């Protein structure tokens, strides 16, 4: 790295020595920006990188709530408002016991450049809590969401900050959060996205991340005369992103043979067809059960997750792999297995699913890598379209939204592949996405002075 880029990274590490995920996100981003830094003296002079790596604002708060036994429970709530350079802060809320400031900051940082790539006017943010929704009753989830919003409401607004879902936050939680916001403020506005279809939610928002991931992957493959049709795919996770990735792969004539959760994975060599996918949706979204039940119902192998190293899911022969669970789910050993099995493309549905070492192994093995900032941008893109519909007080048809989503993903592909060729090497979509996302945000920051 050039000395000025290296200095930014060292400063981040010194300032927040414990924030490993944030450091990782900044590091991979700076590796790309380093390739163009010589041509951008203004960026160095006006300390754009130093400013980008410090959130505009971090809000941390207490979330007290009452469990079903009448006990007081306390969680920690977060909202990281990373950048408002090109629009109101925008990004999801995550409810997972692992949530901490480092994870919130890495997600908010990624979101800034992802949102920029969508071409829509959205800044970047992320929030959530270390609340664990697993095993909680419907009433406990509602009380938690109401308490969380009772603090969050004063920091957000349709032109200020517009949260949405992420891990552990789907339509149900957004509904409770929205109800509480409306009650406190007496305003019916587009302050959250991913709302129910009856109260301002956009059609195709639940599908958008998974569909967008497949649309972008399809665009990359088409350029190489490859196709989803007739292919065999690995998908990890079994939540929102995984489900609609499977749905779109099936629709395009591909076959998905794996799904997982944090307890284990299933392998279904015959393929998770639409009927079996309907069972997964019911199992995960309604029953809130475990993927193990799929193996019991369809008599297919189940492998329990016993170690953090080398996930057997990434050691199965297939054409393409779609990590759709969580950060760093593909580590060095997994990447070596994917390369050994000659996987042709890895499409990142999850945010930062590959460790730095894994990413290096995949790209140096010639595997096409569709990086998260571009590949999973479909979700927030349709969130942007939901904001547009709310401002218009209109509702577009599912066909209209899907067409917009397809155009946005095509455009993202065009922009990241052109940026890769111009500033880095052909097909280095990691550099392409980082550079294309960065350019617009940095121009906006330069134009707005020292803010
Ligand atoms: P869900 O909560 O719907 O599903 C998450 C899935 O990932 C579950 O199967 C869960 O298993 C698994 N998982 C979560 N944490 C871990 C972990 N630490 N180890 C192993 N498995 C884990 O979330 P989403 O599908 O919405 O999100 C999945 C990924 O996609 C995340 O990285 C998210 O940031 C990203 N993303 C989501 C978008 C959206 O619109 N929802 C948009 C863009 C990116 P279990 O049930 O056992 O916890
Ligand atoms: O990581 C992400 O892009 C999301 N969780 C979706 C954010 C959004 O505002 O729709």
Word description of this protein:
With 451 residues, this protein is an alpha/beta fold. Helices cover 48% and strands 14% of the residues. It has 17 helices and 13 strands. It has a five-stranded mixed β-sheet with strand order 1-2-4-3-5, with helices on both faces. It has a five-stranded parallel β-sheet with strand order 7-6-11-12-13, with helices on both faces. A three-stranded antiparallel β-sheet has the order 8-9-10, covered by helices on one side. Helix 9 runs antiparallel to helix 10 and helix 16 crosses helix 17 (429-447). The longest helix is centred in the C-terminal third of the chain and has 26 residues, at 398-423. It is globular, with a radius of gyration of 21 Å. The protein starts with a helix and ends with a helix. Residues 90-92, 111, 114, 164, 166, 193, 351, 376, 379-380, 383 line the site of (2Z)-2-iminopentanedioic acid.
- Major sheet: arrangement of strands: 1-2-4-3-5
Strand content: 5-15%
Integer-rounded radius of gyration: 21 Å
Biggest sheet statistics: 5 strands, mixed
Low-confidence stretches: none
Overall 3D form: globular
What is the residue-averaged pLDDT?
98
Count of β-strands? 13
N-end to C-end Cα span: 27 Å
Q: How many helix segments?
A: 17
What compounds sit in this structure? NADPH dihydro-nicotinamide-adenine-dinucleotide phosphate, (2Z)-2-iminopentanedioic acid
Q: Secondary-structure element sequence?
A: HHHHEEEHEHEHHEHEEEHHEEHEHEHHHH
Structural class based on helices, strands and sheet pairing: alpha/beta
Helix content: 40-55%
């Amino acid at each position: 790295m050039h000395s000025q880029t290296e200095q930014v990274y060292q400063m981040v590490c010194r300032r927040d020595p414990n924030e490993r995920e944030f450091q990782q996100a900044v590091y991979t981003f700076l590796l790309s920006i380093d390739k163009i830094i010589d041509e951008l003296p203004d960026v160095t002079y006006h300390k754009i990188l130093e400013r980008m790596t410090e959130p505009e604002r971090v809000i941390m708060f207490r979330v007290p709530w009452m469990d079903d036994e009448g006990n007081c429970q306390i969680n920690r709530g977060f909202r990281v408002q990373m950048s408002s350079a090109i629009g109101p802060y925008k990004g999801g809320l995550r409810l997972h016991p692992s949530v901490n400031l480092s994870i919130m900051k890495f997600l908010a940082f990624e979101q800034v450049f992802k949102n920029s790539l969508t071409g829509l006017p959205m800044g970047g943010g992320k929030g959530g809590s270390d609340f664990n929704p697993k095993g909680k009753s419907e009433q406990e989830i509602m009380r938690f969401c109401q308490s969380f919003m009772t603090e969050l409401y004063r920091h957000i607004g349709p032109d200020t900050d517009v949260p949405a879902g992420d891990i552990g936050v789907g339509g149900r939680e957004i509904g409770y959060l929205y109800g509480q916001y409306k009650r406190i403020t007496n305003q019916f506005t587009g302050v959250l996205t991913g709302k129910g279809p009856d109260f301002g939610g956009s059609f195709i928002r639940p599908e958008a991340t998974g569909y967008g991931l497949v649309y972008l992957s399809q665009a990359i493959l088409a350029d190489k005369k490859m196709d989803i049709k007739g292919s065999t795919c690995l998908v990890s996770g079994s939540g929102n992103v995984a489900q609609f990735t499977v749905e779109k792969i099936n629709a395009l004539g591909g076959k998905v043979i794996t799904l997982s959760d944090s307890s284990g994975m299933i392998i279904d060599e015959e393929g998770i067809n639409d009927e079996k996918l309907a069972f997964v949706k019911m199992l995960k979204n309604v029953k809130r059960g475990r993927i193990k039940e799929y193996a019991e119902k369809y008599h297919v192998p189940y492998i329990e997750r016993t170690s953090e190293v080398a996930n057997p899911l990434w050691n199965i022969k297939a054409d393409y792999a779609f990590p759709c669970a969580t950060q760093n789910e593909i580590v060095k050993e997994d990447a070596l297995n994917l390369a050994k099995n000659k996987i042709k493309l890895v499409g990142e549905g999850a945010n930062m699913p590959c460790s730095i070492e894994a990413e290096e192994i995949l790209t140096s093995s010639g595997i096409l890598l569709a990086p998260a900032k571009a590949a999973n941008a479909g979700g927030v893109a349709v969130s942007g379209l939901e904001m547009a519909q709310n401002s218009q007080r209109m509702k577009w048809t599912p066909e209209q939204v899907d067409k917009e989503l397809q155009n946005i993903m095509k455009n993202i592909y065009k922009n990241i592949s052109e940026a890769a060729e111009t500033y880095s090497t052909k097909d280095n979509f990691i550099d392409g996405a980082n550079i294309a996302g960065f350019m617009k945000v940095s121009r906006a920051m330069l134009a707005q002075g020292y803010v």
